[in-house]
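Hey, can you fold this one?
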Amino acid sequence: MKDHRFAKGRLKSFIYAARGMYKLATTEHSIMLQLVIALLVTAAGFYFNISATEWMVQTMAIGLVLSVEGINTAIEKTTDFIHPDFNKKIGFIKDISAGAVFFAAISAFVTGLIIYYPKFSAIFT
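Sure. Predicted structure:
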């Protein structure tokens, strides 16, 4: 029986989302790697004392990559469940999904270059 109380429903949604985040972080190697990179970049932000604007952009870039990777993982798991054997159409769908992650990762990388290149170049000049 569905509970229609607003607060209780939102709490359940939050718990399901937190469980999903935990599952992603503990079972998917690509997310694990991206979390390590996110921690390193966050440490670099503290080390270089980046501005509030740089923190906002960096946080959005990290969130974008992790979110799109989560969606990609959901698509891959769904397609594997629906059609576990090799299928060209399923492969096409997976490639498109992985391509979306690649777009996000490239954007995040460029964002990192824009934020950190001047800081690293100041050290080495």
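The chain has a mean pLDDT of 95. Let me know if you want another pass with a different chain boundary.
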